[in-house]
Each structure stands twice: as C-alpha cells, then as structure tokens.
C-alpha cells in the first residue's frame, strides 16, 4: 500500500469518527495490533488488512444515532461504496467489506478469512485489559448508562444477574468472556497479558462501590433511629 492510498483511507476514516470511545486513536491501536499479529501469520494480504482496520468503525456514527443499527453492517457497506467510488478493484473492496462485516463480537457471523480473523483479534485486544475498561467507562458515560445497578439486597450488583445496562453488566456479560474468543495465537498471547490487570480493576472497583453501602449505611440508619444522637451532642 502506498502512502497516498493510506492517506486517502485515513482521511475518510477521520471524517467518520465522532465517538470518543471509538475515535481515531482506537483505530490506530487496532491497526498497530493487527500488523503485529500479521507478522506471525503466513499469506496475509496486508493491503486488505490495513484498509479493513482503518475502515472497520466507519459505521459507528449511525449506530450511535440509532442503537438498533449494527455498525458493522453499515460500516461494511460504507467501506465497500467508498472503495468502489475511488477506483479500487471489486474483489479488494468485497474482501474489505467482509472483514468489516465480521469484526463485531457476534457468534452468528464469525470471521472467515485470515485478514478478517486478524482484524477481529486486533479490535478485541482494545476491548480487554484496562484499556477495554477505560473505553467502556468512556462509552457508558456518553450514552448515560450507570456504573452499577442495585441488587435486591440494596447493595450494588456485580453485574452477573442484571438485565439493565451498566458498566458491571457489560463486564460480566461481554468483557470477561472476550479472552476465550481470539482466533490467532498471537492475539491470545497478547490478550492473556492484559487479563489479570482487568480482573483486579473490576474487583477493586466493585469493592469500592459496595463499601459505603455496607459500612456507612448502617451508621446512618442508627443515627436516623436515634441511636446516634449522643455522638452528635458531645
């Protein structure tokens, strides 16, 4: 791929990035992860891979405006139309489209080509570890989801049994399950190095969220019941 072609794709990508959790730096991290993984694989079409990495989230704007829209589906068609409109071969554009279409974490539509599998793994690397946590918290703030939901016992839920979106729900239902879904050996190795830090962060954050309810709330109850008056008067 020439610098001119890279610049064309990069410029289009940047024009489509509105979401702070899926900004151009996310795209670059995915791209850099992808070329790292590709260096351990054989027969990779690097031109297709680079194009797919740069264009894989161009449908995010549409999904952010309407959460029922799948950004991978919209982005695949946008990528294909852009490439065809700029003189790329149909086979190349179709291959990139397929990579973009299957990069999302969905069991019903797994990636098939080597390039699609590398893109999938590279994108998921940015969703694991503490980077994944930071990006998830960023995104949850943008869409207005809470950090946690309350359990039936009046204590913040760990997310495991939740049906309402929150950070802890996202962690239990998606983030902690990502580590077993990598397709490449290099991707699995890189993901494994990030797992412990994410688990430790989740555990510490949950304890800090629950602590005030467990320790402070009984003190308040005692005070409101009149048992704390003596402490106030002295």
Characterize the structure shown:
The protein is mainly α and 234 residues long. It has two domains: 1-122, Hypothetical protein af1432, CATH 1.10.3210; 127-227, Methane Monooxygenase Hydroxylase, Chain G, domain 1. The chain has helices at residues 3-15, 24-38, 46-55, 60-65, 71-85, 90-101, 114-125, 129-143, 167-173, 185-224, 229-233. α1 packs parallel to α3, α2 packs across α7 and α3 (46-55) packs across α6. The mean pLDDT is 92.
Helix content: 55-70%
CATH architecture call of the largest domain: Orthogonal Bundle
Indicate the structural class.
mainly alpha
Largest sheet data: none
> Residue ranges: pLDDT <50 for 5 or more in a row?
none
- Domain count: 2
Q: Can you tell me the CATH topology of the largest domain?
A: Hypothetical protein af1432
Total helical segments = 11
- What is the radius of gyration? 22 Å
Mean pLDDT, to the nearest integer, reads: 92
- Which quaternary structure do these chains form? single chain
CATH class of the largest domain: Mainly Alpha
Could you state the CATH homologous superfamily of the largest domain?
Hypothetical protein af1432
- Please give the alpha-carbon distance between the first and last residues: 77 Å
Number of strands: 0
């Amino acid at each position: 791929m020439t610098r001119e072609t890279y610049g064309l794709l990069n410029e289009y990508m940047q024009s489509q990035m509105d979401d702070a959790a899926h900004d151009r730096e996310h795209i670059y991290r995915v791209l850099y992860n992808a070329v790292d993984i590709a260096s351990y694989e054989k027969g990779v079409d690097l031109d297709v891979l680079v194009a797919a990495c740069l264009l894989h989230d161009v449908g995010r704007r549409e999904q952010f405006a309407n959460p029922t829209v799948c950004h991978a589906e919209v982005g695949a068609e946008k990528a294909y139309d852009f490439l065809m409109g700029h003189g790329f071969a149909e086979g190349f554009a179709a291959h990139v489209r397929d990579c973009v279409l299957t990069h999302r974490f969905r069991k019903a539509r797994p990636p098939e080509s080597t390039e699609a599998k590398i893109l999938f793994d590279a994108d998921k690397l940015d969703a694991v570890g503490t980077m994944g946590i930071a990006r998830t918290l960023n995104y949850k703030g943008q869409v207005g989801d809470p950090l946690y939901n309350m359990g039936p016992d009046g204590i913040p839920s760990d997310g495991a049994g939740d049906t309402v979106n929150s950070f802890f729900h996202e962690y239990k239902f998606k983030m902690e399950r990502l580590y077993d879904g990598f397709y490449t050996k290099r991707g699995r190795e890189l993901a494994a190095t990030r797992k412990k830090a994410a688990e430790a962060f989740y555990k510490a954050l949950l304890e800090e969220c629950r602590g005030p309810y467990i320790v402070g709330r009984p003190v308040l109850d005692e005070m409101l019941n009149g048992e704390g008056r003596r402490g106030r008067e002295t």
